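Q: Okay, next protein. This is Leucine-rich repeat-containing N-terminal plant-type domain-containing protein from Rhynchospora breviuscula. I've checked the sequence twice, so it should be correct. Can you predict the 3D structure?
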Amino acid sequence: MHSIEHKMHHFLPNIFFFLLVTRAFSAWCCLQHEREALLKFKADVNDSSNRLVSWRGNECCKWAGVRCNNKTGHVIMLDLRNSYYEWNNHSLSGEINPSLQNITELEYLDISYNNFSGNNFPRFISSYRNLNYLNLSTTGLSGIIPHHFGNLSKLEYLDLSYMPNIYISNVWFLSHLTSLIYLDMFQVNLEDSREWVQVLNTLPLLQSLYLGSNNLTTISSSITVVNFSSLGILSIQENEFNSRIPNWIGDLTKLTMLELLFCSFVGRVPNQLGNLTKLNKLYLLDYLEGPMPPLLNLNNLTELDITYVDLKEDISRVVSKLANDTLEKIELFWLYGTSLTGNLNGWISKMSNLKVLTLSYNNLNGTIPNAIGNLTSLECLFLDKNYFSGMIYEAHLANLSNLKELNLDSNYITVIVDTNWIPQFQLYFLYVSGCKLGPHFPSWLQNQSLITNIDMSNTEISDIVPNWFWNLPSLTSIDLSNNNMSGRLPLNLEHLTNLNALLLGNNRFEGEIPSLPYVVEYIDMSNNLFSGHLPTYIEAPKLSILVLSNISSMVQ
């Protein structure tokens, strides 16, 4: 017994050392044939930003974007995705070498946001029997997805979005991808896929579905039992169904986001939407008919976007179809072009967490209540193209420290604030065309250093534009037309390097027309008192509209 223990005493450390060495070796031991496959792929790829600079030497498991199984040494992950924001500058391009089919144990493949235009859809991907993640989004691939793509029975994540040159002739191969959880086929051509809903109904684990611009013309309404009831996100955009929203959508009771945008749906907004009690986000953008169905059970709703739906209701009645505790949770309330009537009184104070309020292009009237000033989280306020009237004072705006976008265009509103008022917010966009701001130029703009777009046309301002206005550093679009503004402009505005539109028509500006940056695209100086020579920016390469009519004493 002692001798056995003695032997084990010396043998166990040797085993332990062997296991450590073996594990460390296998963790980074790149298989030669897979390394060669990767190097052949690299040889055919244009890598102008040197993203694959680490792809040298024998240890391919340490290369950027490569991961191996720490027991077998097989490459199991190839992550070559490019940043969305660097798509044009740092993308890989060239040919996709079929040598990649020799990486037989791949589980994860992501080559999204690279430029492989000119390549057909890589058929060898269908041989990756262990693949569970595939992202080919925005790669420029073309051709038909082969039917044996259905061999990827372990696939859980599939993103083929933004590849308009990809075509699926028979969508039934998807029914074999029974592990699928995430599917994005935005812009994939599905024009012959009339039974796409029936196919989706064979995917019981599917949680996220994104379709858009697929040339779809049919959406089945005949499903009696919905098997893809695990769906949490359903987004369908820009197809031509010309039919009613199917009732089975009301059976997708796990939905947290429903997005139906420009799909040529007809008829009324279905009452079945009221069954979707877990919805956080509801977006309907289509020429549907009202009235709005009761949504009292949607207690989790935080974003409601109804655009172009012909509701023809009083807005207070629409709001009454949401529970009071829902109103307190809503962060985005967007009712754009929905034929609403009524005013903002009463209900607006209940929406205390609003970040975005858009009621544009309706028939709303009345005054803007002081309660809007209590919406301290508000970032965007769009009330344009209505019939609002009355005054807006500092009290309406003083507490809106998060406000970034303000649009009051085409109303009968007068804005009255003290000349020394300094708002707490920093705007990016200000649109107040048709409102009354004058007669004085609004001095509070002096502190709006982030503002990019200003439309103060037709606002009854009859004042000299102060010099500080032309030094606001971020300006891209300025419209001061149809006022009675006067004075001379600075001789040089080339420091406004982002300025693409300057509209000063129908005022009383005088002196020389200033030099402007070469990026400018739209200029209107008409009906003013300018004199002197035409500036050289007429030759600006991006200039598409130039209006200089009725300018006195202009010398060419």
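A: Here is a summary of the prediction. The chain is about 10% helix and 20% strand. The longest strand covers residues 387-392.
Q: Noted. On to the next one.
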